[in-house]
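Q: What does the assembled structure look like for these inputs?
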Amino acid sequence: MKRTYLILLMLLIGACGQSAEREYELAPNKPEPLSAITDELTPSASYQEAYAAAVVAIDAAASKGHAWSTSDSLLKQAQTAAVDGNEERAIQLADQARVQGELAAQQADTEVAAWQEKVL
Amino acid sequence: MIKVFVIILVATGLLATQPVSAGPERDLQAMQDFYQKRFPNVAPEEFANGLYAFDEGAREQWLELEDFPPYEIAVEEGEGYFNTPFANGNSYADCFENNGLSIKQNYPYFDSDTSKVVTLELAINQCREENGEQPLPYLRGELTAISAYMAYTSRGNTINVQVPNDNPKALAAYEAGKQFYYSRRGQLNFACSSCHVQVVGLSLRADPISTTVGQVTHFPAYRTVWGEIVTLHRRFVECNAQVRARPFESQSDEYRNLEYFLTYMSNGFELNGPSSRR
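A:
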């Protein structure tokens, strides 16, 4: 019973993710994705440092009204990894969250003027 | 000569500080023209039916559903709550014009005293607090039911949101809502307009995307997928989350300003809520 429930839940989460993806695929004149090139990042020295920097970056984006849910969830995953004692993974996830926070703040800065181009 | 020069300077200075748009009326006209041109075969009043203006099959299912409206229970419950006096003996009717009946077409409005946009849901909670009651949670339950009942009593009334010309703060709130609508958000980098203007009417996933005009006429709406009646702000949350943006709180300044702009874009439409949507 519990397993069925879990599978259903996973399918549901998968479907939500997919539909947004699909909408993105289908949209004409679609905007370019802002993808984080996190693989090439030099990892932060410690989890504490990575986490603190991520929080600063995400809060900066949020104060501009542009926080991403994806960076919130990366940061949560980082916390879980840290609690599990997986420092390397925790650093990687927190670094990714930070980069997304920076991209989100960039998006906010761009949109300060760019939104007007779309007005009918 | 110098005087003429000064006048020219002042005049160009004024022009330079004009906002991009010449105001809400122009925006509404441009929006209406856009959809009319895009869908010459759809009667403009059909846009109040959202995606059902574009999808025959879905429309038939929807009309069948409306024979036994799933929001009816919420309306009845809402009526009950609405008519139950507060501990101090007053009731909701005492807080609103016309005893709270048939008034939704005037919401949201800009309150000059607080310099804030007041939505119907906010006003319901303000009424409670003025009468010594706890505010209700915004996303579901009692407050949504009361809102559904008040919407029901306002059916057929024409939406008439005002952005007073003589109040720059009201215009600023409207402009903030408009900016929100056209600003890209989230990891997917979409604005509301990326879907509801750019790809409007197209079937993404199973559902064609509804127009901006006529989009708010029928809230609160019963969502079949969720099995409950939801407010407009809950829909905002969902549309923000879809593009992987962190949603705002219900009744936040951001969402109230957005509602102000979006409802203005439905001026002239008849209220037809509550309604059902899949």
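The longest strand of chain B covers residues 109-111.
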